[in-house]
Specification:
heterodimer; A: alpha+beta; five-stranded antiparallel sheet; four-stranded mixed sheet; B: Rossmann fold; 5 strands; globular
């Protein structure tokens, strides 16, 4: 008797989603789907507005990663203006983007995944959460808060406020960095370095406890995409798109991001509002008669911290490069780290990298220069802005009229690009743990954790309405509900 | 003199009535300041853990969270008690969970309140529905309740 197991929604991720697991006649997992059931619609909402407003508007898509949207939006604006922003403005934007990486990764690692890692996957779900962490490991919880606050404070110092700073604008930034504020940020750095050092030790110490998870949590071949510097270094703000495959072969060495349409397609599924981007050259094949056929979901790729570390040749800072060498020993020589469980490790390496880059940039004498904004009128009808958000590559594509009024807006967000991989991860975990259709609390915990590896931020693509308990429902082939488990 | 009242408005002004939390929080802060109370106002899209440090540093006597709600017909004021049960944690916290963090990690003992102001339309756009605007008129009464210590 075939059955469908419904898990609705996944806790501790932004937005509202559910998981269904489809069993075959023998009660084994045949397929799994990560559904996104609410639609956000910011793209339509933005049509008719001026592109000048877009950084401020799109920053409000998400309360967690507003800076990512600010960056991509302002860069799309730069492209519409047809300008190169002043070098100091670019450095200041990078500072804010690194601060964003720190605060977002800190929240993901310490407060969303920390309970699973420190309290254990099989621990009581009523306590396997932030409150349980606070109870048992208050110092870890405090460290997470301090590190996140570091990032938020840097954003606030630069932008005037930590949520929705209107400081990043097409053409550059609004205000220069003062010597006093540079000193303020410098003073906060040592504690942030200490915390990420402790977190790296804590995570690496835990690896022995999670050998199963390491082997089964999204451990499959896929492509990886991210920005790199022109010489192949780790990049979060600008640079070129690179794609590598599961053997480490470089499929795209350095595509200018504005040409992303040449390599990325977007599929839709009737059961999810989240789009399913794919790498076109791997999904579209020539058929007989010269016609092309789509072989999606071939072309699945991953983005975000794991992917960024897999596509770059080096990080470019001493401590992050040392960690990157250790990270790469997790995979056979020359091949990418394929296991999504190591998104955690990649996040911590990126925090370390971001802190090193912040420190280095603050030492740059030009960082307090006052020339921070270029001015121009509309010179291009299409503008593409690309940056690396904490969760992965973020694309803003704007089509405007001669007055700069938006006629079409397309946002490709990181969570969407990891959609196929998240589905594959859930399926892999379910196949490993669910035998004969039996679902236990431990299985649910692990499926949830599998999703959280990607730290999906569904409010970037959907509207979060309230919070609900998790419900697991089992249906037989005729659609009859045969089991139901609810987790408050 | 320290902050007597920390007011935290929650919402998104580009989601119509979801912005009512901010507008109500501003109006409430204004009322309290007119009454001579030292107020610190924070406007947030969502509650996040580091607000616990802000509360610890500001050391207020009272904390007032203000949020729009589809579930109330008029503005309500209820005391927030720490939640020892597991919060369903997304990237955001609810007021009870944040109060728990404040108390357990930073020793914040301020009496905490949640104002829920009515919302009807959470669609894209700016401006409030009539119902949400009507709800804002309760700000003076809520301020009076807080000043009265109830």
């Amino acid at each position: 008797m075939s059955k469908t197991i419904l898990i609705d929604p996944v806790t501790r991720i932004e937005g509202h989603a559910k998981i269904t697991i489809h069993l075959d006649e023998d009660g084994q997992v045949a397929d799994a789907r990560f559904h996104v059931t609410e639609f956000r619609g910011f793209e339509k909402f933005c049509e008719g507005r001026s592109f000048w407003e877009m950084p401020g508007i799109t920053a409000r898509i998400c309360g967690i990663c507003p800076v990512s949207h600010l960056m991509a939006s302002a860069k799309a604006g730069d492209a519409i203006l047809g300008i190169h922003i002043p070098p100091t403005a670019a450095k200041l934007r990078r500072l804010m983007n690194w601060a964003q990486i720190v605060q977002s990764h800190a929240l993901s690692f310490f407060h969303l995944s920390g309970p699973d890692l420190l309290l254990g996957m099989d621990s009581d779900p009523a306590k396997r959460n932030l409150m349980g962490l606070v109870e048992k490991y208050p110092d870890v919880a405090r460290n997470g808060i301090r590190l996140r606050r570091f990032g938020q404070k840097v954003i606030e110092i630069l932008g005037g406020r930590s949520v929705h700073p209107a400081w990043v604008v097409p053409g550059g930034v609004r205000e220069p960095l003062s010597d006093e504020n540079r000193s303020k940020i410098r003073r906060m750095l040592p504690e942030a370095f200490d915390i990420v050092g402790l977190a790296l030790d804590m995570l690496k110490d835990s690896f022995d406890h999670f050998r199963d998870e390491e082997a089964m949590y999204g451990n499959f071949p896929s492509l990886y995409m991210g920005l790199v510097t022109p010489d192949g270094g780790l990049e979060h703000y600008d640079g070129l798109l690179r794609v590598v495959d599961s053997d480490g072969a470089v499929l795209e060495a350095g595509l200018p991001p504005a040409r992303f349409r040449e390599i990325l397609g977007e599929a839709v599924e009737p059961w999810s509002y989240l789009k399913f981007p794919y790498y076109k050259p791997a999904a579209i094949r020539e058929a007989q008669g010269g016609r092309s056929t789509l072989h999606y979901p071939a072309g699945m790729y991953r983005v975000g911290p794991l992917a960024r570390l897999n596509v770059c040749d080096f990080a470019g800072t001493p401590r992050a490069d040392a960690e990157l060498r250790e990270f790469r020993r997790l995979a056979p020589r020359g091949r990418p780290v394929a296991n999504s469980f190591h998104y955690h490790y990649a996040r911590l390496i990126e925090i370390l990298y971001a802190l090193e880059r912040i420190a280095e940039t603050l030492d740059d004498p030009s960082i307090t220069d006052k020339r921070i904004r270029a001015h121009a009128e509309v010179n291009n009808m299409i503008g593409v802005g690309v940056s690396e958000a904490p969760r992965g590559t973020l694309f803003h594509e704007y089509h405007v009229d001669e007055n700069g009024i938006l006629r079409k807006v397309n946002l490709i967000i990181a969570t969407g690009q990891n959609n196929l991989a998240m589905n594959r991860t859930v399926k892999q975990i379910a196949q490993y743990h669910i035998k004969d259709g039996k679902v236990t609390e431990g299985v649910l915990n692990r499926i949830e954790h599998g999703i959280r590896l990607y730290d999906p931020c569904l409010s970037c693509s959907t509207h979060a309405v309230g919070q609900m308990p998790m419900v697991v429902e089992v249906y037989d082939a005729s659609g009859m509900l045969v089991d139901r488990v609810k987790r408050e | 003199m320290g902050t007597a009242v920390l007011v935290i408005g929650i919402g998104n002004t580009l989601r119509r009535d979801d912005g009512a939390g901010w507008f109500f929080a501003k109006a409430l802060a204004d009322q309290l300041q007119r009454a001579g109370v030292s107020v610190h106002l924070l406007l947030q899209q969502q509650l996040t853990p580091e607000l616990a440090i802000d509360a610890a540093e500001l050391a207020p006597d009272q904390i007032v969270f203000v949020d729009a709600s589809l579930d109330v017909q008029e503005a309500t004021l209820t005391e927030v008690t720490p939640s020892h049960a597991a919060p369903v944690l997304d990237h955001r916290l609810d007021a009870a969970a944040l109060v728990t963090l404040m108390r357990r990690l930073y020793g914040v003992r301020a009496k905490s309140w949640l104002v829920q102001t009515p919302a009807l339309d959470l669609g894209h756009g700016e401006g409030l529905s009539e119902k949400a605007q009507e709800g804002l008129r309760a700000a003076p009464a809520v301020a009076a309740s807080l000043l009265g210590g109830s």
